[in-house]
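Troubleshooting entry. Yesterday's outputs looked truncated, so today I'm pasting the complete records for two proteins to confirm everything comes through intact. If either block looks cut off, that's the bug. Protein one:
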Amino acid sequence: MALIVPASRPRSSTKGPLDQPDDSLSTENSNNSSTLPTQNAADYGAYTGTSFRTLDPLAPEELSSGFEKDLSFLLRYDNYHSLSQVDIPHALRSEFASPKADETLASSLCTLERLLAEGHFLLAAYLCGAILTSSFLSPTDVQQVFGLFYTRLACLELSGNTIIAAQESKALEDLSSAFYYVSPAPKAAGADNSHPNYPRHIAPWPLRILAIRLQSIGFGDSRRGIGGLYEIGLEARREIMRPDLDPAEREIWRQRLSDLGIRTVNALIEMGDLGAAKRSLEGLKKTEPVNRTIKLRTILLLLSLGDVNAARQLCGDFGDTRDALFKPLLSMVEGRYNDAVLEWRTLLTIKDREIEDATVSQNLAVCLLYTGQLNEARNVLESLIYTHHSFSSLVFNLATVYELCSDKSMQLKTGLVEAIAKQPVTGHTNLDRFNADFKL
């Protein structure tokens, strides 16, 4: 059963109460450095197609002044895998969009922004590949090519196709090579010297971050990912220490460096080295301002390691409503599900807490399931569906409950698919779900 953090990524395996749910330590959730270039789903008509050029606010100035680099190696048709909806229930399928002969690049980019805002990540990945291999795109349009390539990889990962994304990321080859750096133009005497006088990387920061993880998967070398994170971490430190750096830019680099620390912990977890991940998190607590995010991640990691006493010590005073979720969590870890049921119910009555009702309710349903109250667990999960929640762990858990409490689970799960297909589009969840999400 999934626990704590709802997410939109498809899951295909049963989770237990000690398993970390839906990537609360994942790279996608660390900060805005890996956010897709999308707009709110409610802002229909606001799509301009320009967001793919603005992934990196600290991109080298040379990129906006006629800089050209031949990226035709990223536009080859054989770089991209064929995508299919055969594993998606019929009710959730939508037609793949492709650039038409009489369509402009700007129009295709607007369509892509709309798909992202709606949560059609598989469809968006398909359209990215179609645009990248079309005649619309110039191979020397560096910002546009990188923006679309990043969006393709991110959408593949968000739609549950991480292995495909890892294979396609190999097309970038070595991102630390001299090819990806641009030297600053010579400055005249007396000119402004506030800008760096050393080569700058031309790939947007989010793409570099994502490519490090995907290439480590694609090449089957987890140490490659750790090394890549440390390498760009040195770059971030160098930028932070620049005396001429604008305070706003320095803050962005500080956020990036902090994000790299969390990503390093995540990489160690994916390697299975939980001990090193724990030490890294402890190191972050010493170098980073104490915040709830790092605290929550540390507690979840300690619980995964089975170090309940250390987790309890870190939880501190449960009177703080911001930390109120730790108490039922610890009850679940210790197998006291009846106590956890009462504690989750109590948490639902707290109005000034940060955790969402849907998250609390799902965990309440998990505890009800473990205490044998199947019908009530089903009612709680179905009530979330009725109120238009459909994150991946909720769907998977409800499908599991259907299997446990009815001989007609297939019909119930099919009905669940139909109900989710009729939900309004919010852009907060992945709409292109696999059959595995519904255990079909």
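Protein two, checking that the full record survives here as well:
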Amino acid sequence: MGCRRSLDDVADNLASLSVGGSVDAGGGKPAAEDEAVRLSKLGRKKDFKYMERVRGRLINVLEGLELHTGVFSDAEQRRIVNCIYDFQERGRKGQLRERTYSEPRKWMRGKGRVTMQFGCCYNYAMDKDGNPPGIIRDEEVDPIPPLLKQMIKRMVAWRILPSTCIPNSCIVNIYDKDDCIPPHIDHHDFLRPFCTVSFLSECNIVFGTELKIIGPGDFSGCASIPLPLGSVLILSGNGADVAKHCVPAVPARRISITFRKMDDAKLPYGFAEDPELQNLRAVPLRRQQLHDIPSPQPAARIVQPPERVMPTQKSMQVPAQRSPVLLNEDDFPPLRSSSSRKPGRR
């Protein structure tokens, strides 16, 4: 009886948070109850660990990483993916603001993933106008779409993202097979924590203070974490600021959405916070519920030094006859339209 009452309490706070659009018109109770049950079964892993020596000190470079599984159902994932494809089509037709959509030419393995940014225009590298890496404050992009705002509300309500760091920007990556993201640390124009949500196919994200670039789309590091479908990876602490991370060439088409909060000092000129994303709070849970939330099975694979890597982890080894490939600006091209026709502004 106590468990039922506890779920009812949570359900009352979830009635407006359905990402799948299934809230009942008569008050939202059935969908909210379903979300309350799902919340009670959410997988959370927060004990990632790999010790590396940094500036003479041995530290856990994965401290601050969290993996939350079961956050978005299969039906919700399909709806989100369809929304992304709809925006991709609009971007190709020039119906989004110029810096919102980018589809570079695929000129080699690992290059050419489609990107869409909402909330702010972020520059990966010095662009043709002389803008350095970081948020370009005098550029406008489209606001965060309604369905993606619902994702933010869900993650705050379910205690995945803290209410003290609610995202006001996001970037969507659409990977074709063999597309990748090279090693990097996210720019400090964005606060910590931030998160990435995975769709369409599972892939690994690789962490380490010294990530090796073996060849186009091939990287090695100390830890490789599988990202299940519909999961949310939180990056904070050493996992965001000491360890670099990268996504090696993906085995199949994949979509990721990375949500981040901008530093107030770097907000675009004229930026107005979305009232829908203000004052979000986590749903109240009884103490017993917090203790009962299970963790998924261990997800991190710690990769041993190259000479000790198992044969099944060939992608993580460093071939002896290849030289490291240096990063250049092409690895993070400035975001711009690839169309010869300049997209119009709305």
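Both blocks look complete. Sanity check on protein two: The chain is about 20% helix and 25% strand.
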